[in-house]
Amino acid sequence: MNVLTIAVFELRSRVSLISTWVYWLLYAALGGIWMAAAGGAIEHASLTVGSEKLAINAPYPLAVAITILGFVGVIIIAALMGRSVQQDFEYGTFHFLYTAPIRKRDYFLGRFLGAFVTLTLIFTGIAIGLEAGMHLPGVEAARLGPFALQSILRPYLFNVLPNTLWLGAVFFVIAALTRAMAPVYIGSVLVLIGYLLAGDLLNDMENKTIAALIDPMGTTALDALTRYWSVAEKNTQQIPLRGLLLWNRLLWVSFGFIVTAVGYRAFRMDYGVGRAALGGRRARRRALIAAANEAPAPEADGRLSDAGAAGAMDRSAGAYLRALPGTVWLYLRETIRSPRFYTVVAGGAVFIVGSARDVSSIYGTTTWPVTYQVLQVTAGFFALFILVITAIHAGELVWRERDARMDEIVDSTPVPTWLGFFAKLLTLFAIQGLLLGVVMICSIGIQLWQGYTHLEIGHYLFELYALQWPRYWLLAALALTIHVLLNQKYLAHFVVVVFFLVSLRLPDFGLEDRLYRFGSVPEVMYSDMNGYGHFLPAARWFELYWSAATVLLLVLANLLWVRGRETGLGARMTGLRRRFGPGAAGVAAVAAAVLIGSGAWIFYNTHVLNPFLSRFDREELQARYEKRYKALEYAPQPKITAVDLHADLFPHQHRARLSGTLTLLNRSGAPITDLYVMMPRSTEVRGLDFGIPATLVDFDRELSWRHYRLSAPMQPGTTSVCHFDVGYAMKGFTNDGAERVVVDNGTFLNGAIGPETSFVPSFGYLEDAELTSDRERRKFGLAPKERAHDLDDPVWRRIGFSRDADWIDYRATVSTVAGQLPLTSGYLERQWSENGRQYVSYRMDSKMADIYPLQSARYRVRRDRWGEGDRAVAIEIDYQPGHEFDLDRMIAGVKDSLGYFTQNYAPYQHHILRIIEFPRYDQFAESFPNTVPFSEAIGFVAKVDDHDPKDIDYPYFVTAHEVAHQWWGHQITPASVQGGDFLTESLAEYSALMVLKHRYGDAKMRRFLRYELDRYLLGRSAEGKKEQPLFRADGPTYLHYQKGSLALYAMQDAIGEATLNRALADFVADWRMKGPPYPTSRALLAKIMAVTPPQKQYLISDLFENIVLFDNRTTAATWRPAAGGGFEVDLTVSAKKSRADGLGAETEVPMDEDVDVGVFDAKDNPLLLRKMRIHSGLQSLRLVVGAQPAKAGIDPLNKLIDRNPDDNTKEVSRQ
Amino acid sequence: MRLKIRGLSKRYPNGVQALEQVSLDLSPGMFGLLGPNGAGKSTLMRTLATLQEADSGSATLDDIDILREPARVREVLGYLPQDFGIYPKVSALDLLDHLARLKGLADTRGRREVVERLLQRTNLYDVRKQKLGSFSGGMRQRFGIAQALLGHPKLIIVDEPTAGLDPEERVRFHNLLADIGEEVVVILSTHIVSDVADLCSSFAVIHHGRVLLTGEPAALIDSVRGRIWRKIVTKEEFAGMKGRLPLISTRLQAGRTLVRAYAEAVPEPGFEAVEPDLEDVYFSTIAGHFAVARAAAA
User: Fold this and answer.
1) pTM for this one?
2) Fewer CB in a 10 Å sphere around the end CB: N or C, chain A?
């Protein structure tokens, strides 16, 4: 027998197994469904890989699909490779094979090859499924690109096949040496850990290389390789096997070879040394046993059968129930005594601790390990781990008796089937409980390690054991059921894992209702401010519902439990009727009643009390809104000139009542007879009048559109007073849990973000409510649309923050429960208690934008002051007690900002500045007039290490950014056209950068800007419409934040900070609190142009008016002693400058400009850094420095936008 | 306590007719079920042990319908399967205790007593704390009989218990079986004739799923007396006889072949009459020569 004979035999026996084809079919189905969802064949699905501008069959999306689907295949590789050698031991066939004239090489390679070819065959299912999916009816032709076989084949070459090869080899060797399957599964769990860890590391781009290399699956390397690919490249460029991807593949395939070589040497075709070897203890035991065997049987009275007679037999259910704990303990002991369990747990624990070093980082700076943050990382990381272990142990437990060939003995005892079944279920629960304990211990360890001693054991216990554990129970029960139903251990493992993964992604396929997503429970988010809030009951209802469903499943599984030799599902189904006794019927009836009852209650809450709106439904509403009312977009409407608000918040009842007056002014130049009023759908309108009698002619409840006709027209230039009295009350809960509008502690009604969160009436058609994605628009027959109005649109130049108002007078009285402090924009005029409620009255002393927050919580207040006399500004931070960590940094941020901005731009328009914390349900900070609501998650728990040169003080930075908005946003309110975000966000980011630079120095800037460069390049690579040049910034954050800070930083670097600030001050002077018309980016660029020397004016075009990218690199760097002392450095650099279109297609443009050239010593200190004239192409440079050079190159500080920033510098070698 | 089997049939999905119209009547005492490998013995045993379903027919143990009331059967059943494993890392004491629990010995003290008594009687007491993985084949079988006796069963099924045991162990095991009380129905399935000869008061021969013969060993031996002949032949002579003479068994003896035949009169010159034993009955039956005897015994 040679290698081939054995391989072919293995292959043939595999191919004749039905499970091989079930794997294949599952894969083909997954591939087909993936494409159907991505291609639009499933109407409600919304699956986008990378960007909706990518063809679904383009190289990149296909590579992602194939690698992700291939990843799940690890379980199949483990099963097939492991089994191909382990089964010879399980069935004892090794006795024949190992004594046959088969050479080790032939056996080893033959079996491996057979399994490898089978696996390859199974994995072709992915490609065939994907390809077939593209041709399904309903797949939108517009989403398909040209067919290229390579796009499908390449991912196999760099991902699926290498992984099958090396992982297969490792699993094969493990099975060959240990002669068991369990260690193989441990191997697959370790691979999973490696993959997770790599993904986690990649979040910080500084770890890119290590992350790309350690991922055993190569997925992270693919991510790293294509990280900065533009949309155009992802659409057309095949994934090349080079760079980190190549290294990763080489690394792991070689690892596979080494393991194989070592394993091959160690492998013996024999009975097994371990079995024959007798250690001292074992030898003694053998001797004892032999002696016992030889001893004559003791004389005994009576018949042998009478020896088995027991006085008391009790076979009642109660007696067996009492046997349950012992049985569970028997099973559990077996698991936790096995070394493999410890291996897995220890591996998991090590990786938890390793990955949680940086508990949560922003710009590479960590936060304090507060309990919820640590849990988010540790429990989040461990979740997949617990799932896999649950799946594997479910299989082990279901097969426990059969694997030990004890099944016939146990099955023929009078024990009720439910005892073993129930005990196995509880054992699974216990294993999960143990793993959660590991999470808790690791988390506490991390906290102590980082010097955080505020241990909240109660919080841990509640989160892990009262919230997470029950959800894992559902999965345990499901895994057990799948194993019982399929009765095919290895196939069932795969099905369980696929089920887990698919159920996570169901919403992408349009299946959102939790009533039919198994085990789906709304998220309960913990916040230090609000605890678990009022979110638990909804979650508990869903848990009850799914528990009842699970009990039904368990009853079914128990009835279909394999007892005896009748293993076919058909035979078991027949037997089901007989087994279905009153006990099962009773349990099933109760469970069904609970299922129906809780389901009805949930349905009543999520579909009747609250409208159930899937993503598709919401899109449909948006489309309908546009189709129905777009024609009225420019119908004249009055402007709000003053708001007098009375707001009563009822935090514990989760309701609010807002009433007051809006002063309306007809500034349209035409009489107004029709008013179109928008309020959120949940608003209950108690009273609404406009000062002029009006009738409601149309009320479109679904779209929340009200059309009033005035009895007499509102004449141009006249004012009128609108009285409103509206309420909001939470009604039950929705599919996503209880609404977060009014919460027990930390309510934040945000009056700025469109109609869903502001209850104050708004007038006219709201363009923001339209669908933005061109793909979705196409689905509903709408034409594509730009993200913003054209820069020069004359109508929209006259609109600032909103259509409703230009500048307003603002006053408000807000009340809340006693013990909480209500807050809004303006100045506190009066504060009092009445009827056990806390009241405040605020008034703004100057005109302001029409946005204001309403907040209420139990705050502690930190106060400070900045400046002297008239210009003095009171600083106030309202925060959650316990969150004192970063208050000093925030205060410093406010002071430094006020200093820099008043000196360089213009005076601050208010004399108080308030930072107000809100719960982490949202993670942002936002500037309102003299008030900055600030999420607890993005600065209040930051742990900045001032001694770490890498740490960025982001509480300080974010504060500076928000304070800057008091200028860029509140003094300069831009027109609602392209480039508006440039004037607000980019300028705020620049201003904060300057403040940061003055405090922390230029070196910190470099690190910061590297992050900004990374995120800019990453952002544009997922562009869904087209990238605009900065001065037309139209919404994407990568543009106005990241590119904005890079461009403005480069501008001040080129012309000087003071010069640029002079232009900004000039701009503010022209436009301060002006509008309509409002300023646009053209006005700013003109000011910058005015201060820029002619030879640098090209920068305005490069940085702001075009998308310019560089590809600069140093190709050679040598040094030799200079004639006059010092070191002469010779550099060969290549430079290239391109302009990109909206999707990233580049055209080279000639380059001839000043670029930084630098030489650094071994400690990375610059020996020389100066601007030199650089042109396109290769060029040689000669520099002389005074000390030993170590590294040199072009644009070393990455000031230019370059997709390969790492090759700019090079080690300098001796010539 | 009577076990009645009537017209039991079972055909496997792959077409093998494992049981065909099997009918038997068993009263207390040890009943041997003799047949070659693959005769359907284990299928019958498993069916009686509630682990398998039959296509047709019935089986009752007194008033218990074995096929329809598995739970009631299990309460009075002790089963030692043909090919069973044990958890290698669990001690004999622990496993027997666990199984006792499953059999319904709920009371801890009483159970402990029963378990220890059985271990003593099966001569495993000294090694009760040893891991089962270190047991020899005979010890495992003895453990098997110990667990089968838990709870004082009325019906004990012992499937091929002596296969693979060395002669000494077989003797020990026979002694154990012989010690089981007479008020219990014990079914011993085996392909070794001497097991039946040594232990059973009555037995049946089963072949190709059908019962060919039932009766008491002594009576059946009597009924073939005078019809069993033997001769020592060479290989060539043997080749000439095969198919021509009613041979029932052959055996090598010092390099030559000893053949036995079943016939009313001397089948050929050179054959001599011999005193029959149970093996002759068995082989005559399997070979199809003793078919009439079935009616005679019934």
Assistant:
1) 0.90
2) C
